[in-house]
Design goal:
This protein is of the alpha/beta class. Helix content is 47%, strand content 19%.
């Protein structure tokens, strides 16, 4: 399983990363956690994460716009 964390603030990405790491470990779920600095990074990756945690207040594209763009690419 790949978990993607997309946030434009480094400290928030790290905080979310640590929480995900602890929770997934406690659940016994092996996961790779990928950190993305912003919307363009997550949209450019060839392998999309199984779970994506999006910041809804990012410059250029917010989390909702990222989700719409990802869904449009899968149809």
């Amino acid at each position: 399983m790949v978990v993607g964390i997309c946030d434009d603030h480094a400290e928030e990405r790290e905080r979310i990363y640590k929480v995900c790491e602890v929770v997934l470990e406690q659940m016994g779920c092996p996961a790779k956690i990928a950190l993305f600095e912003g919307a363009s990074f997550v949209l450019q990756t060839s392998k999309k994460p199984d779970i994506l945690i999006l910041d809804i207040e990012m410059p250029v594209m917010d989390g909702f716009e990222v989700l719409k763009a990802m869904n449009a690419n899968h149809t």
